[in-house]
Batch of 2 targets.
Target 1
Amino acid sequence: MRRLPAAAALLFLILPEAGGRGRTVPSGKIFEYLAAERPILAAVPPDGVAAELVRQADAGVVVAPDDVAALTAAIEGLRARWKKGALGNGSLSEELKERLSRRTRSREFAELLREVA
């Protein structure tokens, strides 16, 4: 599964608002996409967790999922960059890779479980 996102020139993530869940609950797909180190077009709530991760990683473009004009502009801009060979690769810093790694996330989850148990 991981080979497909890594082979793409650009990854598209869509996460609707869904009654506020889109702001506080990121899709697990965002972590796969960040790990693939490919540019991301994130159609997600701009003030949500997924948007913040994309911005922190400087991994792509964030637009609201229901903003057709912004999506169109983002696609056109990304296509122009791709045609010029200037799309980039979405690489992550070593610090961010470690912070988002499964090992680190699992450790944080285990600590949380210990705290509530």
Target 2
Amino acid sequence: MKKKFRLQAGDRVALAMKNCPEYYEVLFACWHAGLTAVPINAKLHAKEFAYIIDNAGARLCFVTPDLESSVDGFSIRKLKDLYAEPESPAEVSPDDVAWLFYTSGTTGVPKGAMLTHRNILFQTQAYFTDIDKLGPTDAILHAAPLSHGSGAYGVPHFAAGAVNVIPESGHFEPEEIFELLGRWPGTSFFAAPTMVVRLLASPAARAPGGLKTLIYGGAPMYVADALRAIELFGPRLYQLYGQGEAPMTITGLSQIFHQKEFVEKLSTCGNARTGVEVRIFDDNDAELPCGEVGEIVTRSDCVMAGYWENPAATAKTLRGGWLHTGDVGSMDAAGYLTIKDRSKDMIISGGSNIYPREIEEVLLRHPAVAECSVVGRPHPEWGEAVVAFIVKKSEVKEEELDSLCLENIARFKRPKEYRFVDSLPKNNYGKVLKTELRRLL
């Protein structure tokens, strides 16, 4: 790949691709050539694609046909252009950046978490240790985006010689998932809790004979939903807690606790993964005793090297040698972690992180909007739904605001409801009290 496209070691290559078998061909070609892969969520808006490609300084972008218009104007290559003369693998260091994972910050500006080869190796070994032993008779079904957790968990399956199964649809279809689980024995797959709920509600729902492990994470799972999932899938569920900055590997709740007699454990997200330290810190970065609530911090060889070309954010997030997650929780005497809240403003809908300020900045472009504030409302299927509170300067229709959002951000981020109010609740410093808005919901 380097020779054909005249790339240098460490150059970034973007992947604007829906799930397809060629995805891993491109990913492994990047690593073989000593390049840094930049997988991008296929659901993003064209402007969001543009920002990530530009910020990463990507020299090349591979696209699937359905996304060509979203990255139009860039140096794109269709998948047929990938093939070149074979070369020996490039010499790389464990601390070279392998995967630039873009995860939005609370400012609404996406940040690229630099994931090294060491991070990916650690994550792979932690999978074997904590989740499953794998072999050539096993498989992983990629029902979730390869640009995120599912793609990361394909790596240990490749390492073990297992099969990676890409649904023909290229996305999540419950009926197709159940059919494939019957086709491939020893199959595992990663799903956001909302995906699990959709599987349970599907008319095609049935006990899948080929299922080995259903790994879920990316958002909290209600205990009632977990119990329903256990009833259908049996004790084959594994819950993980991780972030893009420590991919898929902070804590885990093992299959043994996914049984009805362990209801109290299902409200936790398990204990620290093998080789991982997890603590609860107060506002002064001092460790808190068991049971007290504070910020969740972690350190391990899975923690990112830092944010791409963002030393200030890196210093803040990795201060003191710990990854400061921004999530709030407590830990019991046995080391089981309970997440009390997420980063104060972040919304998780359908397993995707949505940062309100990004939406607020778009809404404020409308001349009729004086003020706005976006919060999440609990939703039985998606986890949370986006709600925008609007203070108007003049009359405006919801359809106008919808159109503005769809022109600038991904469809899944736009508000599902607009509430027009006379004013927003604020504290003495003029900061909007989102807790009060959530209470109104």
